[in-house]
Amino acid sequence: MNFISHAKLIDQPDPRRLDLRASIGSLGKDWLVRVNQQRVAITISVIVDVSPGMHFHGAFKKLEVVAHFLEALGYSAAALGDSTGLYAFDHKLRDDLIVPARFGRAVGLNLAQMIRGCSASGDSRKGIVSESRIAALGDCVSLAAETSSLVFILSDYHWSLDGLVSALDPLADALVVPVVVWDPVETEPPSGSRLLSVQQMGAAQSRHLWLTPKLKQQWVENVEQRKRHLSDVFATRDIKPFIVTNGFDCEAMSEYFMGLGLQ
C-alpha cells in the first residue's frame, strides 16, 4: 500500500484511514484520510534469444548468465505474488521453450534449467539472417503481449536492429526491459600485441588478425558505438536497455529500476 495523497473524509468515507495529524494541520480544518495505491499481482514474461551467438562461452557462458537472471527473477516474482512465463527464439519461435506464465517458488529454477539445457536448432547453426530473427522475436512479443505487464528481452543484440522497434509495437502498454548480454571477451580486447584467431558464431571458417594498438583502440570504440546505437534505438520508444558485461548482478538490476522511478 503506497501513500498517494490525502482526501476529505466526506469524499472518501473510511474512518480507518483517518490521518489526525494531517487533519489538524489542514488549512480548511477538514478531516483528512490517507489515499493509498494498492499493488496487485502482475504477469511477467521473459523472451530469450537462444541463437548460436548466445551459446558463446568466454569468461561466462551467455545462456548461463540468462539462467542466473531467471533464478533471481523467479525468486523475486514469487515473493511478490507475480507469475512468470518464458518464450524463446532463434531463427524462429522455439515451441519447445514456451512456458505459460505461472506462479510458484520453483518457477525461476525450472525456467533456468530449461535454458541451460537448450541447444541451437539445426537450421540456426547455419547462421541467422536479421529478418528471420526479427520475425521470430515478433512472434514471441505477440504471445507475451496478451497478458504481460512487464517484459524482459534477453539477447546479445549482435544483429541488425532494423525493424526491432516495430516488432515491439504490441508491447505499448507494458514495461519493456531489454537486457543486453555481453561477455568481457567481446567487449575488452586481449592484452599485448599478438596474432588473434577469430570466428563468427555459425561460420565454418576463421580469420586471423594481428592485434595492433590501433586495432585494439578500434575494438573499444566499436563497443562504445554499439552501446550508443542500442540506447538510441530503444530511446525512440522511451526504453532504456540494461547492459550485462560481467555476469548478472541483482543489485545493478535494482539500481536500474530505481533509476526508472520504480521500486
In words, what does this structure look like?
- Helix content is 35%, strand content 21%.
- With 263 residues, it is an alpha/beta fold.
- The chain is built from eight helices and ten strands.
- Strands 5-4-3-6-7-10 form a six-stranded mixed β-sheet, sandwiched between helices. It has a two-stranded antiparallel ribbon with strand order 1-2. Strands 8-9 form a two-stranded antiparallel ribbon.
- The chain has two domains: 36 residues, no CATH class; 217 residues, Rossmann fold, CATH 3.40.50.
- It starts with a strand and ends with a helix.
- α2 runs antiparallel to α3.
Order of helices and strands: EHEEHEEHHEHEHEEHEH
CATH top level of the largest domain?
Alpha Beta
Strand fraction equals: 15-25%
Helicity, in percent?
A: 25-40%
Name the average pLDDT.
Answer: 87
Q: Give the termini separation.
A: 13 Å
> Which sheet architecture does the biggest sheet show?
6 strands, mixed
Task: Give me the secondary-structure topology.
Blueprint: E1 2-8, H1 20-25, E2 32-37, E3 43-49, H2 62-80, E4 83-89, E5 99-102, H3 107-117, H4 130-144, E6 150-155, H5 164-167, E7 175-181, H6 184-187, E8 195-198, E9 207-210, H7 213-235, E10 242-244, H8 250-259
Parallel strand pairs: 3-4, 3-6, 6-7, 7-10
Antiparallel strand pairs: 1-2, 4-5, 8-9
